[in-house]
From TrEMBL:
Domain Serpin: 15-387
One GO CC annotation: extracellular space
UniProt keyword Ribosomal protein present: no
Name this polypeptide is given: Serpin domain-containing protein
Pfam families: Serpin (PF00079)
Family to which this protein belongs: Belongs to the serpin family.
Length: 390
């Protein structure tokens, strides 16, 4: 398996999800989610599927075999998600958990994948008489894995006595900018909202050279995080449309090219003119199954004999995914970024003319991406339409 091609395919899935979520589901609200977190939960479901359900999952995940899915997942866990904080890099945690009805046991082949590929802790629980307690346990687990940022991944009505399995994934990221902003320079400026009105919000600024590049209809800023002693390089990218109301067409452009992100990453620092980035902090949650169905992934949610590879029981014929809950949090300030999420269930360098300064003023709705630049893996994506809307 070509790991780089797999990551490119995975990123394409990420952008498809983001495009649907940002433009169709919540075009007017601040949004953040971890496409990777949803990808991992779907990969776990795929590992326990067969027949047409498996085929549909593989097709949706843009991969050929369940071995490729498992191989990508295990490499991501070891390559991208090792904690970098002991060596001075970003603090990262990535955790998977599985909760199984105590009267059932996982098939040995599936349990091996759960244990070794996903490093998931499996828990035997009593859904029949203690469904609410189990839901609380899952919520506490997600809260612990995300440094307290994701409080309630499962709503109270998501689990009942008919629940047989829960798969959950949590991602936590906290990085400091390699060049921090001076808080004394942070000042209020106008931010233009979608409806044409303006609000005053705090903007950070700097006079230092930045990774900025202009493209047709939009600009991109890359803010690198402090790197640890390993080879990984994490950055946050701001995709800013030229037009104040240019977000929908920018999202469309992002969604139409599979290698869009790779081809629109600024690779060199340039002199900047006016430079303003708003501070923001958002939390966003949604139930993902409706969106996935709209994108063509229907069989895992419809019952039938698709999920027969999970448990040792004839009951496996009747399993289906009832819901996939996802919640993310991101905060951007002078120091850096803190973000968390949980889910349950060729480049040409065009050198700039010297003396040309580029302005980058993020005073209207934009898209942001947090990714690891060596592999290209996207950890978080979202949009800011109103920085006040915490």
């Amino acid at each position: 398996m070509d790991i780089q091609q797999s990551i490119t395919n995975q990123t394409h899935v990420s952008i498809t999800l983001a495009n649907h979520l940002l433009s169709k589901k919540s075009p007017t609200s601040n949004t953040v989610f971890s496409p990777l977190s949803i990808h991992v939960v779907l990969s776990l479901v795929a590992a326990g599927s067969n027949g047409q359900t498996l085929d549909q999952l593989l097709s949706f995940l843009k991969t050929k075999s369940i071995d490729d899915v498992n191989s990508l997942s295990s490499q991501l866990v070891s390559l991208v998600f090792a904690d970098g904080s002991p060596s001075g890099g970003p603090r990262l945690s990535f955790a998977n958990g599985v909760w199984v009805e105590q009267t059932l046991s996982l098939k040995p082949s599936f349990k091996q994948v759960v244990d070794t590929v996903y490093n998931a802790a499996s828990n035997q629980v009593d859904f029949q008489t203690k469904a609410i307690e189990v839901a609380n346990d899952v919520n506490l687990w997600a809260e612990k894995q995300t440094g307290g940022l994701i409080k309630e991944i499962l709503p109270s009505n998501a689990v009942d006595s008919t629940t047989k399995l829960i798969f959950a994934n949590a991602v936590y990221f906290k990085g400091s900018w390699s060049e921090k902003f001076d808080p004394s320079k942070t000042k209020d400026h106008d931010f233009h909202l979608i409806d044409g009105s303006k609000v005053q919000v705090p903007f950070m600024t700097s006079k230092k050279k930045q990774f900025v590049r202009s493209y047709d209809g939009f600009k991109v800023l890359g803010l690198p995080y402090l790197q640890g002693e390993d080879k990984r390089r994490f950055s946050m990218y701001f995709f800013l449309p030229d037009e104040k109301n240019g977000l929908p067409s920018l999202l469309q452009k992002m969604g139409s090219e599979s290698d869009f992100l790779d081809r629109h990453v600024p690779r060199q620092k340039v002199e900047i003119g006016e430079f303003l980035i708003p501070k923001f902090k958002i939390s966003y949650g949604f139930e993902a199954s409706e969106m996935l169905k709209e994108l063509g992934l229907v069989l895992p949610f419809s019952g039938g004999e698709g999920l027969t590879e999970m448990v040792e029981s004839s009951m496996g014929k009747n399993l289906y995914v009832s819901s996939i809950h996802h919640k993310s949090f991101v905060e951007v300030n002078e120091e850096g970024t803190e973000a968390a999420a949980a889910s349950a269930a060729v480049v040409m360098l065009r050198s700039l003319m010297t003396g040309d300064k580029i302005d980058f003023v993020a005073d209207h709705p934009f898209v942001f991406v947090i990714r690891e630049d060596m592999t290209g893996v996207v950890l978080f994506m979202g949009q800011i339409v109103d920085p006040r809307d915490a």
